[in-house]
Amino acid sequence: MFASLLALALAAPFASALLIHDIQVGGPGTLTFSPSNIQASPGDILNFVFQQVNHTATQSTFANPCVPMMDANGNAIGFDSGFMPVPSTQTANFPSYQVTVNATTPLWVFCRQNGHCGKGMVFSVNAPATGNTFDAFQAAAMAQNGTASAPAPPTSASAAPSASDTATPTGMQTVVGAAPTAGASSGSPTDHRVIVGGTNGLVYTPNTVVANPGDTVTFEYHAANHTATQSSFADPCRKLSLTSTTGQVGFDSDFQPVSADATVFPTYTMMVNSTTPIWVYCRQTGHCGKGMVFAVNPPTTGNTYAAFMQNALMLNGTGTTGTTAPTSGVGKNAAAGGGLALLLVTGALSLLL
């Protein structure tokens, strides 16, 4: 589908190019990932598109198909989309979640909705043709019936699996610094929840957080239609992929339309890999120029959050690029997928140049 079109578009100027693999998750009366097993190369992107009713794409291991992948301390380290509720009446604008493949090592994935993994709702990338095959993985999930408990932590850090060796959510791929290792933070990872828009106006609430490597930041979208898009201090209102001189792509949640009467809100989660500042803006027309910006670990002097916001206000959003979306929500629980193709093509070019 879209993967083939992208490959053809980039085949002429480059010897190889990344592919985007679309995976349908669920659907009316269906507890499956479709396709259920694919082959992917490092740099390829897995695009999980969630349909009815409420599913996840959660990384596990072959030995424990229905348990999130864990490190030596028993902390979940694999990717996890979180639950993606989709009304049975929804027919378009399905929410999606992207993961970048880092190696040819097999990836094992399951839906952590109650009972789904035990009914065979699993997925794999680069599963071997013999031995630990996809069929064996699915059979193990069904044999355990989703009741397996988390394994005991390994006795040494060297025995722990490393999620960063296999795949990362796209929100992680361009955060400056090395991937977190076991024990990198002072305690258990923290999830920092940030409200985007809503009754507070054109703001992120809070507008800054201090996060450790291994922490996550979850953007929760309220009315009307916003993004969380990585930029740089020097260019607050432009995608990082358009300004980076080192090939960084930058994460982008894409537009998330939410109606004023919504009671369930879409989210987008990224992982922090270092203490380096991360600069974020809303790329809805005019929002960045009105100060709708956010930062992780901004310095207290020099390139401060206040200076970052002032720069955005001074530019008045005139540096903003990218697709413009409607400024109002389109319905409850709808997370727009439009603009993904443009983002990934831009990301592919910036990675390859």
Automatic annotation (TrEMBL):
Signal peptide per UniProt: 1-17
Low complexity compositional bias, start-end: 147-171
Organism: Dacryopinax primogenitus (strain DJM 731) (Brown rot fungus)
UniProt keyword annotations, A-Z: Signal
Stretch list, region Disordered: 145-171
Ranges in a coiled coil: none
The protein, known as: Cupredoxin
InterPro entries: Cupredoxin, Ser-rich/MCO-related
Source taxon at top rank: Eukaryota
